[in-house]
Specification:
It is built from three helices and ten strands, in the order H-E-E-E-E-E-H-E-E-E-E-E-H. The protein is α+β, with helices and mostly antiparallel strands. It has two domains: 157 residues, tt1808, chain A; 50 residues. The termini are far apart. This is Recombination and DNA strand exchange inhibitor protein.
Length: 235
Amino acid sequence: MLLNDSITYPESDGRPMADNTEQFRWIVYLKENLEWLFAADPAVFVAGDLLWYPIEGKDKLCQAPDVLVAFGRAKGRRGSYRQWLEGNIPPQVVIEVISPGNTIPEMTRKFQFYERYGVEEYYLYDPDRGSLDGFIRQDEGLVPLETVEGWVSPRLGIHFLLTGGGELQILRPDGQPFESFQVLAERAEQERQRAEQERQRAEQERQRAEQERQRAERLAERLRQLGIDPDSPGE
């Protein structure tokens, strides 16, 4: 049966992406690093705060995970993640960053939504409490991990770590850490300065070589004035 084509699926639930700067920082950190991790794979879609509609025709049934990863889906712009337009593939990985404004009933509803509609890995990080929880799908439900410390995501291949102060650290599959935009920007600036220094050194070498060439030409001209051919082989 064809559903009504006039149904509108809002691209916003009217709520802010984050409740505070700390939550926003972590959402951006996770989303951008995951995009970087899968930048070379055209069939991995990563998004932040994007409404996910699992069932066609149910425009009120949705959630906006802080970060979602969908394997088998092409990169590109989307106003929302409408699952029936995505090969009926749900996001396999969801990450939520908890803020003081998140209530227990709200997080319970989110958990039930993700469990019911096919999320395979679900992670919750609370930067204020310094806690990290994870759930993995077994059979038909999401089962809590005994500990996420040192856990390697089956889908993402990343390592989850917590410092003694409860700061989340994530290592890429090659062991390199996820990095903030500030760190990346500082490294880019260092590379720019290094490239500029190399350019200046190359220019100085070019100028020195040009000066040597001109000096050699002047010497050759002086020898010609003295009746000596500078190009003839010596005896």
